[in-house]
Amino acid sequence: MKKTTFLQEEKNSTKLFLWLFFVVFFVYDILYYDLFPAFPWHDGIIWYDFMYFKYGIMVGLIPLSIYLLKIDKTEIVKYIIFFGYFTTHLFSDIIYYKDSSLTYTSGNLVEIIFILFSPIFVNRKFTYCVSFGLIIKYALVGLFIQSPIVLFPIIIMMVCSFIAFILLHRILNYIKALKYSYDEQLEGIVKGVIATLELKDPYTRGHSERVAAYAMSMAEATKNINPLS
C-alpha cells in the first residue's frame, strides 16, 4: 500500500514537472527568438541548423516520457528530460559561440524551473544531479568559448541550488517528523490494546513485554552469527 501510494505521488509529480518544463521551454524560446527581437541581448542571435535538431530531440522525448509513465518507469523520466536538455544545449552553445564574435547570452528560464522544482521529488540524487549538472554545463561552455561571462549564470545556478537544497532539507525533516509522530502513535495504540487485554486476564500481565524482551535478546545474540559457519 505504501509503495503504491509513493509511486502514484511520484507519477503525479513527474506529470506536473513535464507540463511545466515543456510549456516554459517552448514558450520562453518563442518569446525570446520571435516575439521580442528588439531586446538588446537579442541582437545578432538567429536560428541555425543545430537548433532544429535540438528541438527535434526535445519533442521526441515527449512520447518517450509518456511511454515510460505508462509502464511505471517513472523514476527515470526526469533524468532523461534533464540529460536531454543538458546535452543538446551544451553542444548548441558551444557550436554557435565557439567561433563567433557575439557575446555569450545563452540561458533559459527552464533551468531555474529545473533547480527550484527538483525538491518536490524528495530525491537528493536528482537535486544534486540538476544543480551540479547545470553548473558544469556553463563551466564547459566557458572553457570552449574562452569567455568569463559564464561566471554570471554559474553564480545564478549556485544561488538557486542553495535555495533548492534548503527546501529539500526542510521537506525531508518534515517527512521524518511525520514518520516519528506516526510511529509514536502506533506504539501508543499497541500498548493501549495490550493493557486492555491484560486487564481481562491478570495472570498474563506483562506477558507481551516479556515476549518482546526475549525477542530482542535473541535478535541481539544471533545478529553476529554467520549462517554459513
Explain what the structure shows.
There is one protein chain. The relative contact order is 0.07. The model has no long low-confidence stretch (mean pLDDT 78). With 229 residues, the protein is mostly helical. It folds into 2 domains: 2-163, no CATH class; 176-222. 76% of the residues lie in helices and 0% in strands. The chain is built from 7 helices and no strands.
Topology:
Layout: H1 2-35, H2 49-70, H3 77-97, H4 109-117, H5 124-145, H6 151-200, H7 207-222
Summarize this, please?
The protein has 229 residues and is mainly α. The protein is built from 7 helices and no strands. It has helices at residues 2-35, 49-70, 77-97, 109-117, 124-145, 151-200, 207-222.
